[in-house]
């Protein structure tokens, strides 16, 4: 697997470009993405699926930079979109409607009308919504999202299957809770054609067993529906954030997928397409957030290293207690110090090194004012979840390709931030 960074003369370089040059040219803080890493992860996943009819719907919520979308379009990707504006951005990037699957949440009637008018396939996740869709568009094609009564993920906030979850039409072995027969009734009464069955059980899953169970269960449900064109097993493949975590083992999962699909195809009597919806796996490792040290403070308990970024740029440590590896990009090795890396926002929780309970120290090469810290694995759910909290602008985004850095989104300005006030 291609790595996004190298260490040369004790300094971090990203795709062959020195961090000090990046900061000099584009300023700080800065999101930097390595194009070859994105391509490598897409290809890794594509080739790991041992089945000829497959589609990878990139979950653009992970990172919706237009240039990254265009790169994935060129590679043959499809799109998982969850809002109308995601659909519009995907169309704007050049994705044809038939390569977009819309999995909406609480979709409004007028939004359904727009999607259907644009020939976007709608994937429906509740009986109420299915009934609404059936009344508005009888006789049309549809796909349903199933909650298989189990989920997975790196944090409770991102588990999207099981009884605590708001997502999907509920499947259960207990007939009292099983909503599949009701879904079937709605579909038959309105002469809908059920062309797809979908499930997405959560995000940041490193256990292959969850996907093995999911494939078996979804295919057993799929057998009941004769008109299917695809089954979609969602996204959720994790990446190792912590040093002790192991990458997802695709070979274990692939063997099961191959056998189960072969059996399914024999029983079903025709070949259908399988789809996955990865976001994190494709872009997380390709992205690095660079931020400059501006303050250093000693308290009775910690040494806080203050930087020019915060949870307005990368919310994952604050939202989920997530761990991101952090280097001193100017001196990767040297005398080290246990520090807490603190953001520039007016909230105590604004720390890049923390867990769910609060601050956590990290051992890094002693930071000095002006050093640049590299926060790794920030390509997914980094920029896409950013905000203007405390009236701070969003950073610029840069893509590195062929050892050259190119601006792919300019830094926001004060004028950008005030232009909505009327
Ligand atoms: N498909 C659907 C319907 C989804 O809701 C999601 C993610 C994906 C696919 C892609 O999942 P992935 O492959 O990226 O794990 N902000 C959180 C993650 C939230 C994921 C939301 N849905 C985080 O930073 O960990």
Characterization of this structure:
The structure is a single chain. By secondary structure, this protein is an alpha/beta fold. The chain is built from twelve helices and 23 strands. The chain has helices spanning 19-26, 35-48, 66-74, 84-93, 109-117, 127-136, 180-189, 208-222, 250-268, 280-283, 316-320, 414-418; strands at 5-8, 11-14, 17-18, 30-34, 54-59, 78-81, 100-103, 121-124, 141-147, 169-170, 193-198, 230-232, 273-276, 287-298, 303-307, 326-328, 336-342, 354-355, 358-359, 362-365, 372-375, 396-401, 404-409. The strands form four sheets. Strands 4, 14, 15, 16, 17, 20, 21, 22 and 23 form a nine-stranded mixed sheet that branches. An eight-stranded parallel barrel has the order 5-6-7-8-9-11-12-13, surrounded by five helices. It is elongated and about 70 Å long. It binds ligand LLP. Ligand LLP binds at residues 59, 61-62, 80, 103, 158, 160, 200, 203-204, 234-237, 277-281, 316, 320, 380-381.
Tell me the number of helical segments per DSSP (H or I, 4 or more residues long). Answer: 12
Please state the average pLDDT score: 97
State the helicity in percent bands. 25-40%
Largest sheet: 9 strands, mixed
* Model regions low in confidence, pLDDT < 50 over at least 5 residues: none
Class derived from helix and strand content = alpha/beta
Number of strands: 23
What share of the residues does DSSP label as strand, in percent? 25-35%
Radius of gyration: 23 Å
Question: How many angstroms does the end-to-end distance come to?
Answer: 50 Å
Small molecules bound: ligand LLP
**Shape call:** elongated
Pfam families: Orn_Arg_deC_N
Cofactor: pyridoxal 5'-phosphate
Pathway: Amino-acid biosynthesis; L-lysine biosynthesis via DAP pathway; L-lysine from DL-2,6-diaminopimelate: step 1/1
Keywords: Amino-acid biosynthesis, Decarboxylase, Lyase, Lysine biosynthesis, Pyridoxal phosphate
């Amino acid at each position: 697997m291609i790595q996004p960074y190298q260490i040369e003369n004790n300094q971090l370089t990203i795709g062959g470009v020195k961090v000090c040059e990046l900061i000099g040219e584009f300023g700080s803080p800065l999101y930097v993405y390595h194009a070859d890493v994105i391509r490598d992860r897409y290809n890794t996943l594509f080739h790991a699926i041992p089945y000829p009819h497959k589609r990878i719907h990139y979950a653009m919520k992970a990172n919706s930079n237009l240039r990254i979308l265009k790169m994935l379009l060129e590679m043959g990707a499809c799109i998982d979109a969850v809002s109308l504006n995601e659909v519009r951005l995907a169309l704007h990037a050049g994705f044809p409607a038939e390569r977009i699957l819309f999995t909406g949440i609480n979709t409004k009637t007028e939004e359904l009308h727009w999607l259907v008018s644009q020939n976007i396939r709608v994937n429906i996740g509740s009986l109420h919504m299915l009934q609404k869709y059936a009344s508005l568009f009888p006789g049309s094609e549809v796909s349903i999202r199933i909650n298989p009564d189990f989920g997975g993920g790196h944090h409770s906030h991102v588990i999207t299957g099981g009884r605590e979850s708001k997502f999907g039409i509920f499947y259960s072995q207990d007939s009292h809770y099983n909503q599949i027969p009701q879904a079937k009734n709605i579909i038959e009464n309105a002469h809908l054609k059920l062309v797809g069955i979908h499930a997405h059980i959560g995000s940041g899953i490193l256990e292959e067993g969850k996907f093995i169970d999911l494939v078996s269960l979804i295919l057993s449900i799929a057998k009941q529906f004769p008109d299917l064109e695809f089954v979609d097993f969602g996204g959720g493949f994790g990446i190792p954030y912590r040093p002790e975590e192991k990458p997802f083992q695709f070979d274990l999962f692939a063997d099961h997928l191959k056998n189960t699909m072969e059996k399914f195809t024999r029983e079903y009597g025709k070949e259908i397409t399988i789809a996955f919806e990865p976001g994190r796996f494709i872009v997380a490792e390709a992205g690095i957030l660079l931020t400059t040290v501006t303050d250093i403070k000693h308290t009775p308990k910690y040494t806080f290293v203050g930087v020019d970024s915060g949870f307005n740029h990368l919310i994952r440590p604050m939202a989920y207690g997530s761990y991101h590896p952090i280097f001193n990009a100017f001196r990767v090795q040297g005398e080290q110090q246990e520090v807490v890396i603190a953001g520039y926002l007016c909230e105590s929780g604004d720390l890049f090194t923390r867990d769910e309970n609060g601050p956590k120290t990290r051992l890094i090469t002693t930071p000095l004012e002006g050093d640049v810290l590299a926060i790794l694995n920030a390509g997914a759910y980094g920029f896409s979840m950013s905000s203007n909290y405390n009236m701070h602008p969003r950073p610029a985004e840069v893509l590195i390709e062929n050892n050259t850095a190119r601006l792919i989104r300019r830094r926001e300005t004060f004028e950008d931030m005030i232009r909505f006030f009327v």
